[in-house]
Design a protein that fits this description.
Elements lengths: L1 E5 L4 H12 L3 E6 L8 H9 L4 E4 L5 H10 L3 E6 L6 H6 L1 H20 L4 E8 L23 H19 L3 E8 L1 E3 L18 H9 L6 E4 L11 E2 L1 E3 H16 L7 E6 L5 E2 H12 L5 E4 L14 H7 L7 H16 L1
Parallel strand pairs: 1-2, 1-4, 2-3, 4-5, 5-6, 6-11, 7-10, 8-13
Antiparallel strand pairs: 9-12
Helix pairs in contact: 1-2, 1-8, 3-5, 5-6, 7-9, 7-11, 9-11
The protein binds uridine-diphosphate-N-acetylglucosamine.
Length: 338
């Protein structure tokens, strides 16, 4: 059974391709390599023994998207990761984000709407909740005004999919709202490869640990949390990848109750920035150089998932602890720098 994975050479995409191939699916990857590299294919082959089909394609080129779906008319499911994800950059270049994240989504949905049956999984984010009023966050928590064009593209993306599903009988979709993905495949054949200075906490920590960055700036220690630093729900990327496979299977088996569903993907456990640093120091045996600086604009105080819905309906639960995820991130950092 053929599954299209857009952005399949990226961080979460590549780990999902591995899980799909391990489950016997035939995978076609589309990626424009704007924030990834074709070398990732070698890692996927090393783990699974199988090379996925790959087409270097920019989804903004509508004609090419139309042509792709004509050539691959036997695609039975699409997992759509391809998107830009730097919050700061999205504030500077909103139109780039709307074109990359919304324009391309519309092109794909357009092609899927032509099919008698289509199954679609969307990469969404806990960013849609903003600072939730209640913790842990359930899927019923209200969607708050987005803090950035990036966040807005996730909210709008979900709405576009929901609207399309309402009027397209053959289309079924699931949006997966990720909390904070981290870590690498235990084989250390694939992992996170941020271009330039990492914006996210964990790659910044491991790059500081390896000596690529002088020190980590901790954005604020005066938040109303036990140690004053922000709390997030850090989930191992392999756990996250496996959730995509079960969500896809739910659609393929027609086990879904509604043709559009939303699930939180997290561990259910919140960790503060200082706890994440402690985890790094524990698993690496190294002291991390860090200093406390001012708060970063747009950061929420605390966000962690209520994962009951994914546990009960998808039968999925994150297995790895923060230390296990951190160990894999550190192993990966050491491997790529040596
Ligand atoms: C951010 C985005 C989120 C997006 C995700 C994509 C914001 C507000 N949210 O999540 O919408 O889906 O990235 O990857 O930007 N931190 C430091 N020092 C650093 C980096 C981070 O102290 O150098 C802290 C942050 O203040 C935060 C935590 O670490 O408390 C996690 O930050 P990060 O990894 O950037 O993720 P989010 O901000 O949660």
């Amino acid at each position: 059974m053929k599954i299209l994975v857009t952005g399949g050479l990226g961080f979460i995409g590549s780990h999902t391709v591995v899980e799909l191939q391990n489950e016997g699916y035939e995978v076609v990857i589309i990626d424009d390599c704007s924030n990834s590299s074709e070398d990732v294919l070698d890692g996927i082959v090393a783990i699974t023994g199988k090379k996925p089909l790959f087409e270097k394609l920019d989804l903004k080129e509508k004609d090419k998207v139309v042509d792709f779906f004509k050539r691959h008319h036997d695609i039975e499911g699409v997992i759509h990761f391809a998107a830009s994800k730097a919050v700061g950059e999205s504030v500077e270049k909103p139109l780039l984000y709307y074109e990359n994240n919304i324009g391309t989504l519309v092109y794909i949905l357009n092609e899927l709407s032509k099919k008698a049956q289509a199954n679609f999984i969307f990469s969404s984010s806990c960013t849609v909740y903003g600072q939730a009023d209640e913790l842990p966050i359930t899927e019923n928590a209200p969607v708050k005004t987005a803090e950035s064009p990036y966040g807005n593209t996730k909210q709008m993306g979900e709405e576009i999919i929901a609207d399309t599903c309402k009027v397209t009988t053959g289309l079924q979709a699931i949006s997966l709202r990720y909390f904070n993905p981290m870590g690498a495949h235990p084989s250390v054949e694939i992992g996170e490869l941020p271009k330039g200075v990492p914006q996210n906490l964990v790659p910044f920590i491991t790059q500081t640990g390896i000596g690529l960055r002088k020190e980590l700036s901790v954005f604020g220690d005066d938040y109303p949390t036990p140690d004053g630093t922000c709390i997030r729900d850090y989930i191992h990327v392999v756990d996250l990848a496996k959730a995509h496979v079960v969500a896809l299977q739910r659609l393929l088996n027609r086990a879904n109750e509604s043709n559009y569903e939303v699930y939180n993907l997290g561990t259910g456990k919140g960790s503060s920035v200082l706890e994440v640093i402690n985890s790094f120091e524990k698993v690496s045996g190294n002291k991390l150089n860090y200093k406390i600086v001012d708060r970063r604009q747009g950061d929420v105080i605390s966000a962690y998932a209520d994962t009951t819905k994914a546990n009960n309906i998808l039968g999925w639960k994150a297995k790895s602890t923060l230390d296990e995820a951190m160990k894999s991130a550190w192993d990966w950092e050491q491997k790529i720098r040596n």
